[in-house]
Design goal:
The complex is a heterodimer of chains A (about 375) and B (about 300). By secondary structure, chain A is of the alpha+beta class. Chain A has two domains: about 220 residues, 3-Layer(aba) Sandwich (Rossmann fold), CATH 3.40.50.300; about 130 residues, Beta Barrel (OB fold (Dihydrolipoamide Acetyltransferase, E2P)). In chain A, about 20% of the residues lie in helices and about 35% in strands. Chain A is built from eight helices and 20 strands. In chain A, strands 6-7-8-3-9-10 form a six-stranded mixed β-sheet, with helices on both faces. Chain B has about 300 residues and is an all-alpha fold. In chain B, a hairpin with a 4-residue loop joins strand 1 and strand 2. Classes of the chains: A alpha+beta (about 375), B mainly alpha (about 300).
Chain lengths: ~375, ~300
């Protein structure tokens, strides 16, 4: 059993009084793709820059292949990085940019042309080697930056939100493309992003961060289906968050109250809360069913409300429903098959329904 | 509601006056109008040069102290035949080269740390110490060095207390070079600093993460990208030095004259306008040629001008 490619042990970073990263530990096996997901200011970039070596941790240790690296300068670490603003060298050609790390790492000069050519093919840029950086499109520059970070076959590749500046279509293409290259080469990768879709699409594992803390580390499906807390639930997907009061707690579940509504919430997992305290309820927008109130009986009903806003997005419709019974909360509902029935217009009285198991309860 | 800003009102007034003085019909000639002062200035300079050219071709009559009527190349022959002038020219060129190299070597790290420091205080301190000498003026500064480095100056007095010296530190070639470098440093730093500011710091981080040590990053990334600033400051320092007058007078002590000193002597000591003009024109041609060669080697594009024929 060899050591994991990356191991981060109780790493923290303080800038003066403020803790940018607090006590983060995780390890990543060879060939895995980890995405650190969090809002801006969550400490994700600081964590990435500590792994790269640009920032020294205030506490803890980082291991690469089992070796502690805090005393190792950046240029000695076998880490390729794709920077947020790409940081391609404007005075060099695309070819020279990609060959740069090979020259700096003293590869055999006879080997360099073949290797550079191979990576130009991998990122599908062959033929553009002689171009200057400013003669390439945004997407092409992106590919040069990726080739440059991969060409010396580092142990680890770090992506510092390099795709954020691209337009949506190109960004989604590059996500798929990079994942393909990453799997082909089997290179261990850590990606930083605030784009939840990117995290879900690309990763083997997602680490959600907020305020410098690691909130959850799990495969994408698990982070989505079983979020560790209300923040994670709210950060991924379109989620309704509702504060409720605990009236009664026993082995079978909780008796909860929100606004005028009181209900019994069966619990699939253990949650120790005292009666009288508050809990956060998270409900995915796509798990809510919506029907017009005058459509007649046929479905159950958890709450009534009035359509407050309708966002037609083509393949889906998002309704914002004001529910007086839930303390005047606005419940967002996703209808994924809008072509099968008429759109509900603004002001329409509707019934909302969901399965008890789709309502996730977290201690506050 | 906010009020219409007073500065806008003033600008409107200025525009109204401008419209009266320069009616709309003339607008397509605005570019020429703006060029006019520059053309006038350069024209004056050209006229002066032509006058000097004429003067340089006339010989001084030592009896009457008047210039000859007919043209002769005698003054230029003098320049070539008398070894003193060649020595002076070579001394100026050599000193200018040496001062340029030393100044750039010292100015680059100064500019770099001034631009890259994270501490606002350190940046202010570096900026203030850079500008302070500007307020003193070249001649006063040169005399200042006499006070510090002279035979009974501060340094020799201190050394005497230690039982050393006195050392001859002024009226020597090294002291002249020292004074010139000290004088040129702020110019060079101010020209290099913007070039370094223009380099994205992330490029240095990228270079490091790609395996380059600090030195190799300097060599392969920072210096090539700072080239416009380096070339600009090299040209400025070189031309200011090769044409300098005050430093050789004060710190050179009469034994380390530059061309400008020889020009001065010709005009005002021996009143030979012809010889002075010939010397001055030689300096103009010589220095311009060197600068042209310098820019040719480095490429004018390095001065941040648009490279020709590579439009996108």
């Amino acid at each position: 059993m060899s050591a994991p490619m990356v191991k981060v042990e109780q790493v923290a970073k303080r800038f003066g009084e403020a803790a940018a990263v607090a006590d983060v530990s995780f390890s990543l096996e060879r060939g895995r793709f980890l995405t650190i997901l969090g809002p801006s200011g969550s400490g994700k970039t600081t964590l990435l820059r500590m792994i790269a070596g640009f920032i020294d941790p205030s506490a803890g240790e980082i291991f690469l292949k089992g070796q502690p690296v805090s005393a190792m300068p950046v240029h000695k670490r076998s880490i390729g990085m794709v920077f947020q603003r790409l940081a391609l060298f404007p005075h060099l050609t695309a070819w020279e940019n990609v060959a740069y790390p090979l020259k700096m790492r003293r590869f055999d000069p006879r080997e360099i042309p073949d290797r550079v050519a191979r990576f130009f093919r991998i990122v599908k840029l062959d033929g553009l080697e002689k171009r200057r950086i400013h003669e390439l499109s945004g997407g092409q520059q992106q590919r040069v930056a990726i080739a440059r970070a991969l060409v010396f076959e580092p142990d680890l590749v770090l992506l510092d939100e390099p795709l954020a500046a691209l337009d949506r279509k190109l960004r989604e293409e590059m996500q798929v493309e990079f994942r393909r290259i990453q799997l082909d080469l089997g290179v261990t990768t850590i990606n930083v992003t605030h784009d939840q879709r990117e995290a879900l699409v690309m990763s083997d594992e997602i680490m959600v961060m907020d305020h410098g803390r690691m909130l959850q580390l799990a495969p994408p499906a698990e982070v989505y289906r079983a979020p560790a807390n209300a923040f994670v639930a709210g950060f991924l997907g379109l989620t309704n968050l509702l504060r409720a009061r605990v009236l009664q707690a026993d082995g079978s579940g909780l008796r909860l109250q929100a606004g005028d509504r009181e209900w019994h919430q069966p619990m699939s997992r253990q949650l120790t809360v005292q009666p009288g305290t508050w809990v956060d309820c998270a409900l995915r927008a796509e798990r809510v069913r919506i029907v017009a109130a005058d459509a007649g009986p046929g479905t159950g009903e958890k709450a009534r409300g009035e359509v407050h806003d309708v966002l037609f997005e083509g393949d889906r419709v998002v309704y914002e429903v004001r529910a007086p019974a839930l303390g005047d909360a606005v419940v967002r509902v996703i209808d994924r098959a809008p072509e099968r029935h008429r759109l509900l217009e603004r002001g329409r009285a509707v019934c909302l329904d969901w399965d008890d198991t789709d309502l996730l309860v977290f201690a506050v | 509601m906010s009020r219409y800003p007073i500065t806008w009102r003033l600008l409107d007034l200025v525009e109204a006056v401008a419209a009266l003085l320069w009616p709309r019909a003339l607008h397509r000639y605005t570019g020429w109008l703006l060029l006019l002062p520059a053309i006038a200035l350069v024209g004056l300079l050209v006229a002066g040069l032509a006058y000097m050219g004429d003067s340089s071709l006339r010989l001084l009559d030592t009896e009457t102290f008047e210039q000859s009527e007919d043209y002769t190349l005698a003054n230029y022959r003098d320049l070539i035949e008398k070894p003193t002038y060649f020595t002076v020219l070579m001394r100026s060129t050599g000193a200018a080269t040496l001062v340029t190299v030393l100044t750039l070597v010292l100015a680059f790290p100064y500019a770099y740390s001034m631009v890259r420091t994270r501490s606002a205080w350190r940046r202010k301190l570096l900026l203030v110490s850079l500008f302070l000498p500007f307020f003193i003026g070249q001649v006063v500064r040169a005399y200042g060095w006499l006070v510090v480095l002279g035979k009974t100056g501060i340094v020799n007095t201190l050394l005497a207390h230690l039982g050393l010296g006195p050392f001859k530190m002024i009226y020597t070639y090294p002291s002249l070079v020292f004074g010139l470098v000290q004088y040129m440093l702020p110019f060079a730093v101010l020209l290099i600093a913007p070039a370094i500011t223009a380099i994205d710091e992330e490029l240095e981080a990228a270079s490091e993460s790609l395996g380059a040590t600090g030195w190799r990053t300097l060599r392969h990334v920072i210096l090539p990208l700072a080239k416009p600033g380096l070339v600009a400051s090299a040209v400025v320092v070189f031309t200011l030095t090769i044409t300098d007058y005050a430093m050789p007078v004060v710190l050179g002590g009469g034994t380390n004259d530059f061309i400008a000193n020889a020009v001065y002597d010709a005009f005002f000591r021996i009143s030979d306008n012809g010889l002075g003009s010939a010397l001055a024109l030689t300096l103009v041609v010589f220095a311009s040629t060197l600068v042209a060669v310098m820019l040719g080697l480095m490429g004018a594009g390095t001065l941040g001008m648009r490279p020709s024929g590579r439009g996108r």
